[in-house]
Amino acid sequence: MSHGKVRPESGAIPHWYTAGDDVVTLTEGDGARVYDDEGNEYLDFVAQLYCVNAGHSEQRIVDAITEQAQRIPYVASASGNDTRAELAARIGDVTPGDLSEVFFSVSGSEANEMAVQFAREYTGGRKVLTRWQSYHGATYGAASLTGDPATRNAMERYGGTASTKFLPPLTYRSPFDGDTPEEIGRQAADHLEFVIRNEGPDDVAAVMMEPVGGSSGAYTAPPGYFERVREICDEYDVLLVADEVITGFGRCGDWFGVGTEDVVPDLLTFAKGVTSAYVPLAGVVARPPLGDFLREEGIEVGQTFAGHPLACAAGVAALDVYADGLVENAREVGAYLGEQLAELEAHDVVGDVRGRGLLRSVEFTDPETGEPFLHPWAEDGDNPVDEVKERMKERGVLVGSGRPNVQLLFSPPLCVDRADVDAAVSALDESIADVF
User: Fold this and answer.
1) Could you give the angle at the alpha carbon of 79 between the alpha carbons of 61 and 306, nearest 5°?
2) Which secondary structure element, helix H or strand E, spans residue 419, and what is its range?
3) Nearest to 285 by CA among 256, 254, 260
4) What is the pLDDT of residue 157?
5) Which of 92, 256, 406, 416 has the smallest count of CB within 10 Å of its CB?
6) Cβ proximity of 174 and 219 under 8 Å
């Protein structure tokens, strides 16, 4: 199978690009499939960037964008708009608990930065705590929040913000010594409390984390962890921020990832799936006391394209599509994907399979040491995980790379079925056999 490439003379410089990379050029999409400029078909098991949740070419979203463009294509973000107001209300209907006050932005990075700004203004604290090995964006502020050193180091050469990192509650190769997931969850929460106390609770504005790890590796929290984190934040008057840029809008088998943990954060950020990525849109959802505070104090900053009417029309339509069985499908087919991937642990190089819903990770480790074959944050050299990913692409399946790149991520559109899962897992099985 041959594959289209971005040509140097095309003028378009790819993001997350390494010199010499072959970049597939996609020109069409339908459902869970995309097609390159040479007509090759691929199962899109990364939903491009964990975002095309409704699938490609969903006509209801396309029609909504077209109708809005014909009626009024743009309204300033400082003005009111009926479509914008409708989407805000609809988002409030599906967010957990009393989260209901919506402030729109353009990208997930900007949404996370706005959440931090709101938290600082509301609490008077300066510091924000985020996990090591997390990802919250690649603008200056969001990259400083990010725990992925490759992203953070690239941006913090030139700027940053007050952010302190704490250890995630990993159950695979855990930094904690608990014998059960519950013990690890308790130790991880105790560690977070230790960090808050030592940073000075009055100076800590917020704790920000993804309910399920996104590009860091689809990590789920041990039982009881989030409940204890909520208690700690309440005890020290620290806001809890859920970064739902990847995990939101059905990805984990619920409307939001934090809904699978039965915890209500103080702020929730979203992007990607809100419009199924048909038009850029993001935002922050706050609980009523924070919303009242922002209305009383005013907001002195904004973005030209925040809450763009075309994006909001796409968002309203996307929510209709998700409500029409896709969230349930993500839960049911996601469980099947987890079961099928778990069978690949028969390969001795598959160290761990984890995730929730249609967000899954397969991590590769040397069976003799239990460590990654190559850790890209600390070592140079050929990475067999890259080769497995390439072999899957040759077999017509696109998957994601984790942070760090010791794993492959599976995050397809929510419209996939069991046959699609079987095809993707078969391609992975054969690719592992090829490489190892």
Assistant:
1) 50
2) helix 418-435
3) 256
4) 59
5) 92
6) no
Rounded distance, CA 107 to CA 403, Å?
20
pLDDT in tens, 3-41: 555 444 467 878 877 766 778 899 999 999 999 999 999
Nearest to 286 by CA among 100, 121, 75: 100
* pLDDT tens, residue by residue, 281-335: 999 999 999 999 999 999 988 899 999 999 999 999 999 999 999 999 999 999 9
Q: What are phi and psi of 128, to 5 degrees?
A: -125, 130
- C-alpha to C-alpha distance for 78 and 225, rounded to whole angstroms: 39
Task: Please write the tens of the pLDDT for every residue from 85-121.
Answer: 999 999 999 999 999 999 999 999 999 999 999 999 9
Answer whether 333's CB lies under 8 Å from 356's CB.
no
Phi, psi of 30 (to 5 degrees): -155, 115
pTM to 2 decimal places: 0.92
> Using CB atoms within 10 A of its CB, is residue 150 exposed (0-12), middle (13-18) or buried (19+)?
middle
Beta bridge partners of 360: 355, 410
Cβ-proximal residues to 353 (8 Å cutoff; 6+ apart), any chain: 338, 341, 342, 344, 345, 360, 361, 362, 363
Give me the domain span that covers residue 184: 59-321
- Provide the pairing of β-strand 163-166 with 359-364: unpaired
190 occurs within a structural domain:
yes
Distance set, CA 178 to CA 216, 221, 226, 430, 434 (Å):
22, 14, 17, 36, 37
Domain count, the chain: 2
Torsion of CA 315, 321, 322, 325, to 10 degrees: 170
Of 272, 294, 321, at which residue does a domain stop?
A: 321
- Render pLDDT for 174-214 as a digit per residue (tens, 0 to 9): 889 999 999 999 999 999 999 999 999 999 999 999 999 99
CB 265 within 8 A of CB 240: yes
The CATH number of the domain holding residue 231 is 3.40.640.10
We report the CATH number of the domain holding residue 430 as: 3.90.1150.10
CA–CA dist 238, 310 (Å, integer) = 36
Instruction: Please choose, from the candidates 125, 307, 100, 305, the residue with its C-alpha nearest in 3D space to the C-alpha of residue 208.
Output: 125
Q: Evaluate if residue 168 carries a pLDDT over 90.
A: no
